[in-house]
Amino acid sequence: MTAGPSESANTGLPLPSRLYLPKLDRAPATIIEYLAARFPRMSEQVWRDRIARRTVRFDDGTPVRIDSRYRHGQTLLYRREVPGEPEPGAEPVILYQDDRILVADKPSGMVVSPTGDHLERALQVRLQRATGLIDLAPMHRLDRDTAGLVLFSVEPDTRGAYHQMFPERRITKEYLAVAYAGQVRPGQQWRVENRLETGKPWYRQQIGDGPVNAISDIRCLEQHEGRALFRIHPVTGKQHQIRIHLASIGCPIVGDTLYPEMRDRNAPDGPLQLLARRLAFTDPVTGQPRRFVSLQSLDWSGPQAQ
After folding, report:
1. Where are the domains of the chain?
2. Could you tell me the pTM of the whole model?
3. By the 8 A CB rule, do 102 and 94 touch?
């Protein structure tokens, strides 16, 4: 990963969780006493360890000490931790960074934002650690299993301008996918339009009735030994949209364990062969044309599309 300092000189590690110290009738003498009482499922020793590692801070960036006195009105910053969380299988690459945006190339298997037991492994956290940019925020999402480009906003003042590009469809996104496709031919095209909604279990999507909210343009580039290479331009950005749309035309993506049917995540055909390959847009702040291309490739044995 192209990296800046692993800690910000003023604020240290990114600390997204905030805890306000309220006025209490019987206030504890120290902050660590309050934390032990406020979070009874965590031992006082856990908080002592975190404070020793300087990962609990006041909102001005000053580290909390073991003997820091409890004073109501203060705000603490800390990060939820998963004991024994493993390192990610691969690191992201920073393709571009300036004062307003950062573009990262995410590996498959990495979530974009912290969730569940994916905290230190999350793309956002890895980038915050590498750059010291505490306010770094993703402007869109990729599935955990999808590799490729993610656009981040660096500073809050211009964040809205970049975020608005997505609902207003002022950004071009191009994906490549390798799918099982014995009957398709190179040059064949589809526009898939349907409605996607929460399915069962909750982390799967399904095609439902009602107004269209998911649109993808799909083109077969190459076909080789029962598999095909597809280029996809999603017009909308619903969760799992490309995975469902390819499955709906009879071409499930290689490595997809959710569509068309759920399978074991350790299925033998390897990681999901879906790559967010290109992002292109006119910068809403500078007016400059922007175009970014992923450095990653898919497991494709036929000719690779350019």
Report:
1. 1-6+85-163, 17-78, 170-282
2. 0.76
3. yes
